[in-house]
């Protein structure tokens, strides 16, 4: 299980924050999926979720599973509604030009292991 602080991950991966975020949040694992129902059913609280989805439902799902943060990979930009909702609900949302595969690989190298419930 990982006990990395969110700020360390942001710095190491050169993530772009889309709003202020709590630097001292501890990340307890990682999850990667673009299927929202999969994330709702299997991601664990405190995980960092890596996705290519950009719509507002990402924020709702991240909030529901109590994710530590969301990383939108692949150089895609979140929709304005997504950014607004993330800021309003205090869901840390980041973007990366790296592919989801690269982001997950780097997280794994940092010691972030998969966070899967019921699997």
Can you characterise this structure?
The protein has helices spanning 6-12, 36-42, 57-65, 80-89, 100-109, and strands spanning 4-5, 16-17, 26-27, 29-32, 47-51, 69-72, 93-95. It is of the alpha/beta class. It is built from 5 helices and 7 strands; from the N terminus they run βαβββαβαβαβα. It is 36% helix and 18% strand. A 5-stranded mixed β-sheet has the order 2-7-6-5-4, sandwiched between helices. Strands 1-3 form a two-stranded antiparallel sheet. β4, α2 (36-42) and β5 form a beta-alpha-beta unit. α3 (57-65) packs parallel to α4 (80-89). It has a single domain (4-109), classed as Udp-n-acetylmuramoylalanyl-d-glutamate--2,6- Diaminopimelate Ligase, Chain: A, domain 1 (3-Layer(aba) Sandwich), CATH 3.40.1390.20.
Question: Outline of this structure?
Answer:
This protein has 119 residues and is α/β, with parallel strands linked by helices. The chain has helices at 6-12, 36-42, 57-65, 80-89, 100-109, and strands spanning 4-5, 16-17, 26-27, 29-32, 47-51, 69-72, 93-95. It has a single domain, classed as Udp-n-acetylmuramoylalanyl-d-glutamate--2,6- Diaminopimelate Ligase, Chain: A, domain 1 (3-Layer(aba) Sandwich), CATH 3.40.1390.
């Amino acid at each position: 299980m990982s006990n990395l602080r969110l700020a360390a991950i942001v710095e190491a991966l050169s993530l772009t924050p889309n709003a202020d975020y709590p630097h001292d949040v501890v990340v307890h694992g990682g999850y990667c999926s673009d299927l929202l129902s999969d994330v709702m059913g299997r991601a664990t609280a405190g995980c960092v979720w890596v996705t290519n989805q950009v719509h507002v439902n990402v924020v709702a799902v991240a909030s529901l599973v109590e994710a530590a943060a969301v990383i939108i990979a692949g150089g895609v930009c979140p929709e304005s509604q997504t950014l607004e909702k993330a800021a309003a609900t205090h869901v840390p949302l980041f973007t990366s030009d790296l592919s989801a595969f690269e982001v997950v690989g780097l997280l794994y190298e940092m010691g972030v292991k998969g966070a899967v419930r019921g699997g």
